Amino acid sequence: MVSNDLHIVIDIGKSPPTVKTVISKSRSLVSSAPSLNLASATYITPTFWFLFPSIHRITLPNTLPFCCSSETKMSFTATKFAPSPLPLNSSPPRSNDKPLSFSFDHPKPNPSSSFLGSTRKLLRFNALTRPHAHPRASPPVAAVLLEHTSNLLVTKEEGLELYEDMVLGRFFEDKCAEMYYRGKMFGFVHLYNGQEAVSTGFIKLLKKEDYVVSTYRDHVHALSKGVPSRAVMSELFGKATGCCRGQGGSMHMFSREHNLLGGFAFIGEGIPVATGAAFSIKYRREVLKQADADQVTLAFFGDGTCNNGQFFECLNMAALWKLPIVFVVENNLWAIGMSHLRATSDPQIWKKGPAFGMPGLHVDGMDVLKVREVAKEAIERARRGEGPTLVECETYRFRGHSLADPDELRDPAEKEHYAGRDPITALKKYLIENNLANEQELKAIEKKIDEVLEDAVEFADKSPLPPRSQLLENVFADPKGFGIGPDGTYRCEDPKFTEGTAQV
To answer: What phi and psi, each to the nearest 5 degrees, are found at residue 234?
Structure first.
């Protein structure tokens, strides 16, 4: 039931702790649950909830205090979550998905389920596919339902910002595909279509001073962090006006100005860099006593990375030193052509967090509002100095691994399923249905993005190629570049240099 004020009384003098009673404001007994096992209780916030072994639901509040005394009472006001008592799951959906809930069911992998990936013994944000098996008045209190209520809404300004960033990412990647096939780009180009809710949901909550470390699928992360479209497009064109002066290309976006510490071509390569950045923040704050050292680092990587040693080493270090970092797994279910379910002994990546002493969470990565809700808590937790968080965002890419991939290995039914859960379409529907925006406003944003990208392409196309003298710059400490003489010419072109008689 939903009451204006409920008290959950927990007796933690026993081992394991047990929930004794749930009491309403009038002190009447709502339920008694002496058999409830809290041995698996974890860090409690609006996002990181109890993990209980059985299935039943009660509404919980925006903030839950948890104290270590012989008998702990947790009080909350249900009206902070809902303006009036609501039956469970009666709220309208926030997107084209079904109502938001936490699920503690343990289904077997099923291609017809709402997620085609990590489905075994998974704590997830999930769509309800059947009515609750337990009546609402059942005595046991054994799990938590997060009601879909007004505290999850975004403002009009926030909603339009999210929509514009996601549309920018999608349209930019579509333009990249067009330019690639027209011969304007070379090498491997990995597009982000379908995964925009993850980048937008996390990065748009950051401050400019915060750090982002990306992967080879990094264009949209750069855009979300504020790197101009002109600079990213020019980099893809290999031009001197690119964010890396044309030397990085698709997989190596970098911007010191925006604290984008790079895209990395090898999987797992960026995680130690992100961990080092987080360590530097903690060192500057605690050792150098810099009051403004409150930055947070986001490390993005995919499901294929999570079986690599660097991933585990960095989880250990981050938890050991309580570093201000959030590890964001963009689980798009495929590592090039290898299914996540075939490559991992336990496909539940989020579970690796608690193994190292940090919260682990799985979220619907196709819903930017759900991602944003989780991201906000994880980022704020890191900024407060409470340590790292591992977040698994289950998402899907709408194109092949790269533009060189014919994408023939994935089941067409699987691709069709996720195309129907397009995160941009879902956000658009949500904004309109909740009167946060109208069609004209959203079309104006799309038109604006089209103009921005046309300008970016024109700028990149007209920009100069890097000079030959730039080739070996930034390789060694020589400010003129290793291999370049004082007169600006290549030393290797001097016969005396190759003979070993040149003065160096």
So the answer is: -65, -35
Q: Is 225 helix (H, G, I), strand (E, B) or coil?
A: coil
Instruction: Give the pairing type, strands 325-331 and 124-127.
Output: unpaired
Q: Which of 63-77, 110-124, 178-192, 429-443 has the lowest mean pLDDT?
A: 63-77
DSSP string of 426-473?
A: HHHHHHHHTTS--HHHHHHHHHHHHHHHHHHHHHHHHSPPPPGGGTTT
Residue 125 reports pLDDT greater than 90: no
Mean pLDDT confidence for 20-47: 36
DSSP alpha helix (H) spans, 22-110: none
Give the count of beta carbons closer than 10 Å to the beta carbon of residue 404: 11
* pLDDT over 90 (residue 271): yes
Secondary structure class of 501 (helix, strand, coil): coil
The C-alpha atoms of residue 409 and residue 399 are separated, in whole angstroms, by: 12
Specify the higher pLDDT residue, 352 or 151: 352
User: pLDDT digits over 58-99, tens only?
Assistant: 333 333 333 333 333 332 222 232 233 323 233 333 333 333
Tokens of 129: 């596919």
Beta partners for residue 331, in sequence order: 394
Read off the tokens for 363.
């979220």
For 239-307, the DSSP string reads -TTSTTTTSS-TT---BTTTTB----SSTTTHHHHHHHHHHHHHHHHHTS--TT----EEEEEEGGGGG
Do the Cβ atoms of 165 and 173 come closer than 8 Å? no
484 forms beta bridges with 490
Band (pLDDT 50/70/90 cuts) for residue 400 is very high
Cα 7 to Cα 22: distance, rounded to the nearest angstrom: 6
Question: By the 8 A CB rule, do 115 and 126 touch?
Answer: yes
Please tell me the distance from the alpha carbon of residue 205 to that of residue 195, in angstroms, as a whole number. Answer: 17
Distances (CA, A) of 245 to 225, 230, 262, 373: 18, 12, 14, 36
Query: What integer pLDDT is reported at residue 109 of this predicted model?
Result: 40
DSSP category for residue 342: H
Residue 3 near residue 59, CB atoms below 8 Å: no
Of 225, 177, 174, 227, nearest to 199 by C-alpha is: 225
CA–CA gap between residue 459 and residue 235 (Å, rounded): 11
Residues 304 and 314: their CA atoms lie apart, in Å, by 16
Burial pattern 17-50, b for ≥16 Cβ within 10 A else e, equals: bbbbbbbeeeeeebbbbeebebeebbbbbbbbbb
d(CA 249, CA 66): 49
Q: Which residue's structure tokens are 């704050």?
A: 285
- 389 or 122: which carries more pLDDT confidence? 389
